[in-house]
Design brief:
Blueprint (H helix, E strand, L loop, with lengths): L3 H15 L7 E12 L4 E12 L6 E9 L2 E4 L3 E3 L4 E5 L7 E5 L4 E4 L7 H4 L9 H16 L1
């Protein structure tokens, strides 16, 4: 398994390759964990994202990520601006950042300052992002108080 630093660099590189001017963004790793309970079993789906933003602005870009053996591949980026942002919640009942768009897309993102290797067993990528997390909380607070 790749180290925390290698994974973080791969996530940033994937974002930069998918977003024009990506190097100018602050980026955080986010995961969306969806669980469905059935009578006999429970399924858990984990989706990985890179969330990019520029300090002092409220626009953000969400890039879906696929990780396999330390290689991170970006999906199609979604830019969320004032024009297409429907709602933002600081936290839901499970402590996730929730953002909805006007076209019906919804993201319930878990963003942690440090994802321990223990959570990596649950398919979250182990990354260290304390400085980026602090910058993100400033954006999150600006979005939820606006």
């Amino acid at each position: 398994m790749a180290s925390k630093e290698q994974l973080k660099a791969a996530i940033h590189a994937a974002f930069d390759s998918a977003v024009e001017g990506g190097a100018g963004y602050t980026k955080v790793y986010a995961a969306e964990i969806k669980q469905k309970n059935f009578i006999v079993f429970r399924t858990t789906t984990v989706s990985n994202f890179a969330v990019g933003f520029r300090p002092g602005q409220t626009d953000l870009v969400i890039v879906p990520l696929e990780e396999k053996s330390g290689t991170v591949t970006p999906g199609t980026p979604l830019t969320i601006t004032e024009a297409n942002r429907a709602s933002v919640k600081k936290r839901d009942l499970q402590g996730r950042f929730v953002i909805k768009t006007t076209d019906g897309q919804s993201f319930k993102l878990s963003i942690l300052p440090s994802v321990p290797k223990l959570l990596a067993a649950g398919y979250q990528l182990p990354v260290e992002q304390k400085a980026e997390y602090e910058a993100f909380t400033t954006l999150r607070d600006a979005l939820t108080t606006a």
